[in-house]
Amino acid sequence: MKDKKYTISSELVAAYLDGRATREETLQILSAAKVDTELRELLEIAMAVDVDLQSDNVIEILPMTSLAAAHDDNLCVWLCEKYILEQKDVKFDEDKAITDMQSNGWLKSEGVNLFNVGRYSETLGLSVRRIYDGTLNDIELALKQGCGVIAIVDGGELQGDCHDEICEDIFVGRIPDHAVVVTSYQQSSDVIELYDPNAVINKKQYKVKQFLNAWADSKYYFVTINLKVMNTYNPKPIDLSDVELTDDLNELREAIAENAHEIWAVERQSKGWTWGPKRDDEKKHNPCMVPYSDLPDSEKLYDREMAMQTIKLLKKLGYDLIKREDTDLYKDLISRIRDSKETYYCSHCWSMGVKTPVSKHQVFCHKCGHELRLEELYKG
Questions:
Q1: CB atoms near residue 204 (< 10 Å)
Q2: Among the listed residues 31, 39, 106, the one whose alpha carbon sits nearest the alpha carbon of residue 74
Q3: Are 148 and 84 in contact (CB under 8 A)?
Q4: What is the largest CA-CA distance in the chain?
């Protein structure tokens, strides 16, 4: 049977690359790319060029909220975790494990968020680490240290369904949707041994290049699980060097740092700590039990750095911090309030001596955040 022929015009390709193709046109290109080598190469080159042009300006988002769920029952993560626990002779009740994972929100109907891989093992007292931007060297070292290693991959790419998966990466984006256990790897080899709960033969060897292509979709994310062993910890935080903060976010950093200090001080105070010229654990004295403004620069620097890294991490994970005043919803709300013939005021703000105009249709006050009830509003 001859392959179906597709006629894809340059205008249609250009429309897709500009993001203007309809759903039907996108499906048409997707089908054609499966059988048309030249079209597929063109799309791959276009995608590579686009990434290169944007590399200096765009943050490479980490897919931490992606779901590993390629198994029939969305249990691939659990099956990998179970495999490691059994290899380490850790006793557990499987039914209870699944119930606990579901009740804690780690195992959802769609699968497991990447940042929750290994949570159940933690409850059993095992040491768990989650690492982005991993390397084969990192995996080899973890295996030598006796760790169980769960790698998050694109299940289709791992099985070698190249045409469909290349098109998926181009049209839909990289999708890390499956978990496997790395059971053996050596730098001198061109193969890697994996336990795959989806495969007919669960434990088999794959070409390293094939594994790397599938692993890349999760930004080389892997999780190690091990019995608690000291002196093997080598910190590897997420690289945030490509994240730059705007001036308003830098100002927010200072507010977060100050509030973090206040939270720390309240917690210390609740345990009986007070100010002292030097730290004394027996007397519970600490020279940092002072307002944030009175802290030495060295202590402020620590709080600021923690705040800045937290904001950067949120952006790295794909979140945007937007001031309420800058949103269309807020602008629309204020417009309705100003256009209203009747003026209402938030009763809570009123009790604090502040006149905050609100709409009678508002659910919460945009100033104080309190829930609004029409019968409680002050009418102007």
A1: 13
A2: 106
A3: yes
A4: 87
Q: Which two tokens stand for residue 170?
A: 């181009």
Q: Are 180 and 158 in contact (CB under 8 A)?
A: yes
Structure tokens at 357: 């105009």
Q: Is the pTM of this model over 0.85?
A: no
Say whether both 27 and 79 belong to one domain.
Answer: no
Q: Which domain holds residue 19?
A: 10-54
As a residue count, the chain comes to 380
Domain identity same for 75 and 206:
yes
What CATH number is given to the structural domain containing 251? 1.10.490.160
Total structural domains within the chain: 4
**Residues whose CB falls within 8 Å of the CB of residue 230, separated by 6 or more in sequence, listed in order:** none
Q: Measure the CA–CA gap between 47 and 70, rounded to whole angstroms.
A: 26
Higher pLDDT, 256 or 323: 256
What average pLDDT does range 114-123 have in this prediction? 90
Pick from 226, 139, 154, 147: which is nearest to 189 by CA?
A: 139
Neighbouring-strand partners of residue 154: none
- Listed ranges 39-48, 176-185, 232-241; the one with the highest mean pLDDT: 176-185
